[in-house]
Amino acid sequence: MLQEHKIKVLISTEELQKRVRELAQEISRDYANRELLMVGVLKGSFMFMADLIRYLDCDVEVDFMGTVSYGDSTESSGEVRITKDLEQSVAGRHVLLVEDIVDTGLTLRYLLDTLRNRQPASLKVCALLDKPARRRVRANLDYYGFIIPNAFVVGYGLDYAEKYRGLNYIGVLEDPGS
Ligand code: 5GP
Fold first, then answer.
1. Backbone phi, then psi, for 66, in 5-degree steps?
2. Global confidence as pTM
3. pLDDT at 5
4. Which residues contact 13 (CB under 8 A, 6 or more apart)?
5. According to CATH, what is the number of the domain 13-148?
6. Ligand 1 center to residue 44 CA distance, Å?
7. Which one of 34, 131, 136, 138 has the lowest number of neighbouring Cβ atoms within 10 Å?
8. Which atom of ligand 1 has the smallest separation from the CA of 76?
9. What does the pLDDT look like over 42-55, one tens digit per residue?
């Protein structure tokens, strides 16, 4: 892949796969007797979601929501808009929201408020990455993969200006402004 930026590996492919497998085991146990609806937040969660579901050992349906948050490419403004909504009703369903990364927490807060209004039977959150340094609202993550420092990360679904989503590791984009 053509790389215009220097990218330093933060979480290797092996570490990612090991952790995703552990999360899948935990989720499989917790939802063993319930029908799970996994809701992936596009676009960043697509790769995490795909791997997670491969390792799951319980009945699961999937759906996706798309969001954009206004701001420049590395700073979220906090204003969230839904660009793609679910195809099915979540009323009475056991919903697990799957996020790539929780940064300020504003996107998650908005999505949780939106979904809660639709009266699911239960609503939990699974985020691959937790970046608590810049949190602006409280975020309760039921499952998370890794806590990361305050840096802009790419790879494994996460982009910088739509690039680098295909990397199979999480890397830190050095000097994204250059
Ligand atoms: P929040 O609303 O929590 O500030 O941000 C959530 C969204 O911002 C994430 O779903 C992701 O799309 C984007 N985001 C936050 N931090 C990063 C990061 O370090 N790298 C990338 N690629 N996206 C990020």
1. -115, 140
2. 0.93
3. 82
4. 168, 169
5. 3.40.50.2020
6. 8
7. 138
8. 4
9. 999 999 999 999 99
